[in-house]
């Protein structure tokens, strides 16, 4: 069997294990590929002489997933098409104990080595070549980090030296205590993790202070947009007042997104998509559209299809069908579905 069922004992945080150790050699990579496809598109070299292996222990901390991962070398990618399809709005913070990776993150090169800490933005493309590695990883919703620091330029950032050592020491200490961590203790852990990470990521060079101020203003404006998306007549004046910034600043900050109007539309569509694909939401499609600021179901449907290449009703059907799929190939995939669904449910819960 590829992994154990999720477990919760005596109020401890939920835990699930995935491992290819007991699988036939020929099944290990295909099952891993299907498992991790909820986050990455992995590939391996067909002529690689190293037997493929992968193991992931995941602890659900409520607002965050904590993963202990040991994998063979492979390539990982998140393409723009995949980003549009899954709509994940999370960060991956990785502490590398062994191994590393190199590659391209949205047009910038990255080279990570043992003892260093990287952060990747799931809303931006990447293509990396990873060595055989042992890592501790955190999957964190954007909203958790946006409360603490500007997030737009975090993709591909790396902590090195003392900053990396401080964060790594804390994460490895937490790793040893997670099996006995109680669910009511999890919020304190997630807050301390994000707080420490944000503090270590803050720039110390006074010369880049203006850029930091702009990023903080952008983060503030984005938070305001999120709270106002339900208002059909949301306009720039209302956003400027809520975010305490000028109209000119608002236009300048959102120029990379195609303008503030396009950004608002994109966020409305993303929130609607999460609601449509969440098995726990049973509202009519029109109700979901109206609840997120659309004044016309027809306009919503056209915009949704243009953004995602699929009709709203098809998006709801496809994801819900996938979420309830039963075993198709072999017993190992029974457990695999639990791991994958953990990621999907976490995506819905933290959207």
Helix-strand blueprint:
Blueprint (H helix, E strand, L loop, with lengths): L14 E5 L5 H12 L4 E3 L10 E7 L4 E7 L2 E5 L1 H7 L3 E9 L2 E5 L2 E5 L4 E5 L4 E5 L2 E9 H5 L11 E2 L1 H17 L8 H16 L7 H20 L7 H8 L3 H7 L6 H18 L7 H7 L5 H12 L3 H12 L8 H18 L2
Antiparallel strand pairs: 1-3, 2-5, 3-4, 4-11, 5-10, 6-9, 6-11, 7-8, 7-10, 9-12
Helix pairs in contact: 1-13, 4-5, 6-7, 9-11
- How many domains, as an integer? 2
Residue runs with pLDDT of under 50 for 5 or more positions = 204-210, 323-337
What would CATH call the class of the largest domain? Mainly Beta
Mean pLDDT: 84
Number of helices: 13
**Rg from C-alpha positions?**
21 Å
CATH fold assignment of the largest domain: Jelly Rolls
The CATH architecture of the largest domain: Sandwich
* Derived structural class: alpha+beta
The side-by-side strand order for the widest beta sheet comes to: 1-3-4-11-6-9-12
Distance between the termini: 31 Å
Give the biggest beta sheet.
7 strands, antiparallel
Q: SSE order, as H and E? A: EHEEEEHEEEEEEHEHHHHHHHHHH
Task: Estimate the helix proportion, in percent.
Answer: 40-55%
Beta content comes to 15-25%
Q: Got a strand count? A: 12
